[in-house]
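Work Package 3 (structural annotation) set out to generate three-dimensional models for the target panel prioritized at the project kickoff. During this period the team completed the workflow that converts sequence records into discrete structure tokens, so that structures can be stored uniformly alongside our sequence database. As a representative example, we reproduce one entry of 254 residues exactly as it appears in the project archive.
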Amino acid sequence: MLGKSPERDREIEMIQQMIEVAGKTGVKLLLYNTIILPILRTGRTTDPKRGNAAYNTWNYEEAMKSNEPNYIDQVVGIDEIYERITYFLDRVLPVAEEYNVKLGNHIADPPAPVGYRGITRWNSPDVFAGIKRFANLYDSPSHGFNLCLGSVAEGLKDPRKEIIPIIKWVGERNQIFNIHLRNIKGGWNNFMEVYPDNGDMDFVEVVRTLRDVGYSGMLMPDHTPHHDDPASYLQGHAFAFGYNIALIQAVAAE
């Protein structure tokens, strides 16, 4: 994604080999991302109502106060980002199709304003428009999404209402290959990552929508909060796994 040749060609060749090995060994889905700027967070917010759980938080106004420099020695606009994405996918999608492997792209976390720290993310500033543009790049059974609902919601002003049309649009195209089921409070430029049961998205309605579009893949826990226990990460994921199973059973029984 830094666009440097011949380095990127050698790296793409390695990924082509990974896809071949995956297909030959029965691994039918690989997850990846096409980002430069990494995950962005500005701190943690403590919730006394949930055992002082600490929620990873992003606040754009707070981030701007730190006046951080550009992330790399390049300014990368939206057209250049897509040039690099298509350069990559033009070379790996044919291999994925040959070996019957799906490639699920995880969108940038979070969507951010244009040009933040010199980088415009491919899914910003309109996350749904970005998803549509990326989805329409190729008509291929191997081209789709590791649809992280938390990351998508981070780019929305009203996640509870706006997430459902996105799931329907991507799902009806059979481009949802995997789901990261993470909830947030807030949205565009200001959010916290919370437990799946106390965020702004209605996960019962989310799972109903996934059922209705024929989704048959996994619901994976993602980024659970921390608390004051060395095993909090494992405990959070255990809670999320149980919650996900209960959601599936409840919706399937309707």
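Residues 46 and 166 are 30 Å apart (CA to CA).
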